[in-house]
Amino acid sequence: MRKILTGAAIFIAGISCGLILTYGSLHAQGSSGDGDIAAKLNEISKNQENIIAAINSMKDDLRIIKIRVTQSQ
Question: Rounded to 5 degrees, what are φ and ψ at 33?
Fold first, then answer.
């Protein structure tokens, strides 16, 4: 009985690996062009730079608020 269950599990794992390779993320990556990926990476990089600039601006504002609170006490 164990041999049958082990064989079935191996068979199902093999089929699922085949389906993943055929229809999964590897297939999706190969279908898009390198230009699309580069453009998306550039967009992500620009968004990250914008986020960092916004965080730095908030840090400066908080530093100013801290100085004002300290001076008023």
Answer: -80, 165
DSSP code of 44?
H
38 and 69 co-located in one domain: yes
Q: For the chain, how many structural domains are there in total?
A: 2
Residue 11 token pair: 């068979």
Cα dist from 25 to 13, 20, 21, 29, 30, whole Å: 17, 7, 8, 6, 9
Q: Give yes or no: residues 27 and 38 share one domain.
A: no
Say whether pLDDT at 64 is over 70.
yes
Examine the domain organization and report whether 53 and 23 are in the same domain.
no
| Residue 56 confidence class, pLDDT cut points 50, 70, 90 | very high
CA 58 and chain centroid, separation:
25
Whole-structure pTM value? 0.49
